[in-house]
Amino acid sequence: MAKLVIKDLYVSVKGTSILRGLNLTVNEGETVALLGPNGHGKSTLFAAIMGDPKYTIDGGSIEFDGQDVASLSPDKRSQLGLFLAMQYPAEIPGLNSSDFFKAAMNAHREKPMALFEYYRLLEKAYKEVGIPFEMNSRNLNEGFSGGEKKRNEILQMRLLQPKIGMLDEIDSGLDVDAINVVAEVLKKEHERGAGLLVISHYARILDLIQPTRAVILINGRIVVDGDASLIKKVDTEGYEWIERELGIEVKKEINASMNNVSIGVCATKEASEANAKGK
Protein backbone atom coordinates (compact mmCIF):
# COMPACT_ATOMS: atom_id res chain seq x y z
CA MET A 1 0.00 0.00 0.00
CA ALA A 2 1.42 3.35 -1.07
CA LYS A 3 2.04 5.99 1.56
CA LEU A 4 2.84 9.71 1.32
CA VAL A 5 5.11 10.70 4.21
CA ILE A 6 6.09 14.33 4.78
CA LYS A 7 8.60 15.03 7.52
CA ASP A 8 9.64 18.39 8.97
CA LEU A 9 8.94 20.17 5.67
CA TYR A 10 9.99 23.79 5.19
CA VAL A 11 8.89 25.56 2.00
CA SER A 12 9.27 29.16 0.87
CA VAL A 13 7.98 31.22 -2.04
CA LYS A 14 10.14 34.10 -3.31
CA GLY A 15 11.94 34.22 0.01
CA THR A 16 8.79 34.12 2.15
CA SER A 17 8.58 31.12 4.48
CA ILE A 18 5.19 29.38 4.21
CA LEU A 19 5.54 25.82 5.52
CA ARG A 20 7.45 25.66 8.76
CA GLY A 21 8.21 22.13 9.87
CA LEU A 22 5.12 20.35 8.55
CA ASN A 23 4.58 16.65 9.24
CA LEU A 24 1.85 14.59 7.58
CA THR A 25 1.22 11.00 6.49
CA VAL A 26 -1.50 10.01 4.02
CA ASN A 27 -2.14 6.36 3.21
CA GLU A 28 -3.51 4.92 0.02
CA GLY A 29 -7.18 4.12 0.63
CA GLU A 30 -8.02 6.89 3.08
CA THR A 31 -9.76 10.22 2.50
CA VAL A 32 -8.28 13.13 4.47
CA ALA A 33 -9.79 16.62 4.75
CA LEU A 34 -7.07 19.30 4.91
CA LEU A 35 -8.48 22.26 6.83
CA GLY A 36 -7.07 25.64 7.79
CA PRO A 37 -7.47 29.38 7.17
CA ASN A 38 -6.49 30.68 3.76
CA GLY A 39 -2.92 31.84 3.44
CA HIS A 40 -1.50 29.32 5.91
CA GLY A 41 0.02 26.88 3.41
CA LYS A 42 -2.53 24.33 2.16
CA SER A 43 -2.09 25.02 -1.56
CA THR A 44 1.64 25.50 -1.00
CA LEU A 45 1.80 21.99 0.43
CA PHE A 46 0.14 20.52 -2.66
CA ALA A 47 2.41 22.48 -4.99
CA ALA A 48 5.52 21.34 -3.12
CA ILE A 49 4.41 17.71 -3.22
CA MET A 50 3.92 17.88 -7.00
CA GLY A 51 7.18 19.74 -7.64
CA ASP A 52 6.05 23.22 -8.72
CA PRO A 53 9.36 25.05 -9.38
CA LYS A 54 8.05 28.31 -7.88
CA TYR A 55 8.21 26.69 -4.45
CA THR A 56 11.56 26.13 -2.75
CA ILE A 57 12.03 23.25 -0.31
CA ASP A 58 14.27 24.62 2.42
CA GLY A 59 14.29 21.52 4.61
CA GLY A 60 12.62 18.21 5.38
CA SER A 61 11.55 15.41 3.08
CA ILE A 62 8.68 14.20 0.88
CA GLU A 63 8.54 10.44 0.43
CA PHE A 64 6.01 8.56 -1.64
CA ASP A 65 5.77 4.80 -1.83
CA GLY A 66 9.12 4.60 -0.04
CA GLN A 67 10.91 6.91 -2.47
CA ASP A 68 12.23 10.42 -1.91
CA VAL A 69 10.47 12.45 -4.61
CA ALA A 70 11.88 15.91 -3.84
CA SER A 71 14.37 15.70 -6.72
CA LEU A 72 11.91 14.27 -9.25
CA SER A 73 10.17 16.28 -11.97
CA PRO A 74 6.37 16.66 -11.75
CA ASP A 75 5.79 14.10 -14.53
CA LYS A 76 7.88 11.51 -12.70
CA ARG A 77 5.90 12.12 -9.52
CA SER A 78 2.71 11.68 -11.52
CA GLN A 79 3.99 8.40 -12.95
CA LEU A 80 4.62 7.14 -9.42
CA GLY A 81 0.94 7.71 -8.62
CA LEU A 82 0.54 11.27 -7.33
CA PHE A 83 -2.12 13.56 -8.81
CA LEU A 84 -3.10 17.19 -8.24
CA ALA A 85 -6.49 18.62 -9.23
CA MET A 86 -5.65 22.32 -9.40
CA GLN A 87 -7.61 25.15 -7.85
CA TYR A 88 -7.21 27.24 -11.02
CA PRO A 89 -6.85 24.90 -14.02
CA ALA A 90 -5.05 26.61 -16.90
CA GLU A 91 -6.37 27.06 -20.41
CA ILE A 92 -3.97 25.60 -22.98
CA PRO A 93 -4.66 26.99 -26.48
CA GLY A 94 -3.62 24.66 -29.28
CA LEU A 95 -3.56 21.52 -27.12
CA ASN A 96 -6.38 19.17 -28.03
CA SER A 97 -8.03 17.67 -24.93
CA SER A 98 -8.21 14.15 -26.34
CA ASP A 99 -4.55 14.21 -27.43
CA PHE A 100 -3.52 15.45 -24.00
CA PHE A 101 -5.45 12.78 -22.11
CA LYS A 102 -4.11 10.02 -24.35
CA ALA A 103 -0.50 11.20 -23.99
CA ALA A 104 -0.88 11.44 -20.21
CA MET A 105 -2.35 7.94 -19.94
CA ASN A 106 0.32 6.40 -22.18
CA ALA A 107 3.04 8.08 -20.10
CA HIS A 108 1.81 5.96 -17.19
CA ARG A 109 1.96 2.70 -19.15
CA GLU A 110 4.76 0.51 -20.47
CA LYS A 111 3.00 0.13 -23.83
CA PRO A 112 0.61 2.59 -25.53
CA MET A 113 -3.01 1.54 -25.28
CA ALA A 114 -5.08 0.60 -28.27
CA LEU A 115 -7.18 3.38 -29.74
CA PHE A 116 -10.42 1.49 -29.14
CA GLU A 117 -9.57 0.93 -25.47
CA TYR A 118 -8.65 4.60 -25.04
CA TYR A 119 -11.91 5.93 -26.45
CA ARG A 120 -13.91 3.43 -24.40
CA LEU A 121 -12.28 4.68 -21.20
CA LEU A 122 -12.55 8.31 -22.29
CA GLU A 123 -16.25 8.06 -23.08
CA LYS A 124 -16.93 6.40 -19.72
CA ALA A 125 -15.01 9.12 -17.85
CA TYR A 126 -16.86 11.93 -19.64
CA LYS A 127 -20.17 10.31 -18.71
CA GLU A 128 -19.16 9.98 -15.06
CA VAL A 129 -18.25 13.67 -14.71
CA GLY A 130 -21.28 14.89 -16.65
CA ILE A 131 -19.44 16.59 -19.52
CA PRO A 132 -20.58 16.08 -23.13
CA PHE A 133 -18.21 13.66 -24.85
CA GLU A 134 -17.92 16.05 -27.82
CA MET A 135 -15.84 18.39 -25.62
CA ASN A 136 -12.87 16.04 -25.99
CA SER A 137 -12.26 17.62 -29.42
CA ARG A 138 -11.80 21.10 -27.92
CA ASN A 139 -8.51 22.57 -26.70
CA LEU A 140 -7.73 21.82 -23.07
CA ASN A 141 -9.92 24.03 -20.84
CA GLU A 142 -10.04 26.75 -23.50
CA GLY A 143 -13.33 28.61 -23.24
CA PHE A 144 -14.54 26.24 -20.51
CA SER A 145 -16.60 27.54 -17.61
CA GLY A 146 -15.11 27.34 -14.12
CA GLY A 147 -17.24 24.30 -13.34
CA GLU A 148 -16.24 22.55 -16.58
CA LYS A 149 -12.57 23.11 -15.79
CA LYS A 150 -13.02 21.54 -12.35
CA ARG A 151 -14.85 18.54 -13.81
CA ASN A 152 -12.06 18.22 -16.37
CA GLU A 153 -9.60 17.84 -13.49
CA ILE A 154 -11.69 15.04 -12.00
CA LEU A 155 -11.93 13.43 -15.45
CA GLN A 156 -8.13 13.38 -15.62
CA MET A 157 -7.96 11.69 -12.22
CA ARG A 158 -10.37 8.97 -13.36
CA LEU A 159 -8.27 8.34 -16.45
CA LEU A 160 -4.90 8.31 -14.67
CA GLN A 161 -6.11 6.40 -11.58
CA PRO A 162 -3.49 7.73 -9.14
CA LYS A 163 -2.61 6.09 -5.85
CA ILE A 164 -3.07 9.40 -4.02
CA GLY A 165 -5.00 12.37 -5.38
CA MET A 166 -4.80 15.91 -4.01
CA LEU A 167 -7.85 18.09 -4.63
CA ASP A 168 -7.41 21.84 -4.19
CA GLU A 169 -10.87 23.38 -3.71
CA ILE A 170 -12.30 21.17 -6.44
CA ASP A 171 -15.82 22.22 -5.40
CA SER A 172 -15.37 25.98 -5.75
CA GLY A 173 -17.42 27.37 -8.63
CA LEU A 174 -19.64 24.30 -8.82
CA ASP A 175 -23.41 24.35 -8.41
CA VAL A 176 -25.19 21.82 -6.19
CA ASP A 177 -25.76 19.30 -8.98
CA ALA A 178 -22.13 19.46 -10.09
CA ILE A 179 -20.91 19.02 -6.51
CA ASN A 180 -23.03 15.88 -6.24
CA VAL A 181 -21.52 14.53 -9.48
CA VAL A 182 -17.96 15.26 -8.36
CA ALA A 183 -18.62 13.69 -4.95
CA GLU A 184 -19.88 10.49 -6.60
CA VAL A 185 -16.71 10.26 -8.67
CA LEU A 186 -14.54 10.85 -5.60
CA LYS A 187 -16.38 8.08 -3.77
CA LYS A 188 -15.61 5.76 -6.70
CA GLU A 189 -11.95 6.73 -6.41
CA HIS A 190 -12.05 5.89 -2.71
CA GLU A 191 -13.71 2.55 -3.44
CA ARG A 192 -10.99 1.86 -6.03
CA GLY A 193 -8.47 2.24 -3.20
CA ALA A 194 -7.07 5.68 -3.95
CA GLY A 195 -6.02 7.97 -1.13
CA LEU A 196 -7.51 11.46 -1.27
CA LEU A 197 -6.29 14.67 0.36
CA VAL A 198 -9.01 17.29 0.00
CA ILE A 199 -8.99 21.06 0.55
CA SER A 200 -12.43 22.67 0.76
CA HIS A 201 -13.92 25.73 2.44
CA TYR A 202 -17.43 24.32 2.27
CA ALA A 203 -18.81 21.47 4.32
CA ARG A 204 -21.18 20.10 1.66
CA ILE A 205 -18.70 18.11 -0.39
CA LEU A 206 -16.98 16.88 2.76
CA ASP A 207 -20.34 15.65 4.04
CA LEU A 208 -20.84 13.80 0.77
CA ILE A 209 -17.44 12.10 0.54
CA GLN A 210 -17.18 11.43 4.30
CA PRO A 211 -13.43 11.74 5.02
CA THR A 212 -11.85 9.15 7.26
CA ARG A 213 -9.56 11.77 8.84
CA ALA A 214 -9.26 15.53 9.15
CA VAL A 215 -6.09 17.55 9.74
CA ILE A 216 -5.75 21.26 10.45
CA LEU A 217 -2.90 23.34 9.05
CA ILE A 218 -2.12 26.53 10.97
CA ASN A 219 0.92 28.81 10.59
CA GLY A 220 2.57 26.39 8.17
CA ARG A 221 2.26 23.32 10.39
CA ILE A 222 -0.23 20.53 11.03
CA VAL A 223 -1.48 21.31 14.53
CA VAL A 224 -4.36 18.84 14.82
CA ASP A 225 -4.77 15.37 13.30
CA GLY A 226 -8.01 13.62 14.17
CA ASP A 227 -11.24 12.11 12.96
CA ALA A 228 -13.96 13.67 10.80
CA SER A 229 -15.61 15.34 13.80
CA LEU A 230 -13.02 18.12 13.38
CA ILE A 231 -14.85 19.22 10.24
CA LYS A 232 -18.04 20.01 12.16
CA LYS A 233 -16.07 21.72 14.92
CA VAL A 234 -14.37 24.04 12.45
CA ASP A 235 -17.63 24.56 10.58
CA THR A 236 -19.40 25.78 13.71
CA GLU A 237 -16.57 27.44 15.67
CA GLY A 238 -14.04 28.51 13.06
CA TYR A 239 -10.44 28.37 14.28
CA GLU A 240 -10.77 30.41 17.45
CA TRP A 241 -10.81 27.24 19.54
CA ILE A 242 -7.27 26.47 18.35
CA GLU A 243 -6.03 29.42 20.37
CA ARG A 244 -8.39 28.75 23.26
CA GLU A 245 -7.82 25.02 23.64
CA LEU A 246 -4.30 24.52 22.29
CA GLY A 247 -2.70 27.88 23.03
CA ILE A 248 -1.58 28.30 19.41
CA GLU A 249 -1.87 31.81 18.05
CA VAL A 250 -3.59 31.76 14.67
CA LYS A 251 -1.61 34.39 12.80
CA LYS A 252 -3.08 36.57 10.12
CA GLU A 253 -2.47 35.00 6.74
CA ILE A 254 1.19 34.26 6.23
CA ASN A 255 0.64 34.52 2.50
CA ALA A 256 -0.77 38.03 2.17
CA SER A 257 -2.29 37.38 -1.26
CA MET A 258 -4.86 35.04 0.29
CA ASN A 259 -7.88 35.79 2.49
CA ASN A 260 -8.85 34.20 5.78
CA VAL A 261 -12.06 32.25 5.17
CA SER A 262 -12.72 28.88 6.73
CA ILE A 263 -15.34 26.31 5.80
CA GLY A 264 -19.11 26.39 5.90
CA VAL A 265 -20.65 28.70 8.45
CA CYS A 266 -17.36 30.54 8.86
CA ALA A 267 -17.34 31.56 5.20
CA THR A 268 -20.96 32.63 5.37
CA LYS A 269 -20.34 34.61 8.53
CA GLU A 270 -17.42 36.54 7.03
CA ALA A 271 -19.34 37.29 3.86
CA SER A 272 -22.27 38.60 5.92
CA GLU A 273 -20.02 40.80 8.01
CA ALA A 274 -18.39 42.22 4.86
CA ASN A 275 -21.80 43.00 3.39
CA ALA A 276 -22.90 44.67 6.61
CA LYS A 277 -19.84 46.92 6.61
CA GLY A 278 -20.54 47.93 3.05
CA LYS A 279 -24.04 49.14 3.83
Protein architecture, described:
The protein is an alpha/beta fold and 279 residues long. The chain has one domain: Rossmann fold. It is built from 10 helices and 10 strands. The protein has helices at residues 42-50, 74-80, 97-107, 115-129, 146-160, 176-192, 203-209, 229-237, 240-246, 265-278; strands at 3-13, 16-27, 31-35, 55-64, 67-68, 82-85, 164-168, 195-199, 213-218, 221-226. Strand 1 (3-13) and strand 2 form a beta hairpin. Helix 4 (115-129) crosses helix 5 (146-160), helix 5 (146-160) packs parallel to helix 6 (176-192) and helix 6 (176-192) packs parallel to helix 7 (203-209). The chain is globular. The N and C termini lie far apart (55 Å). The relative contact order is 0.17.
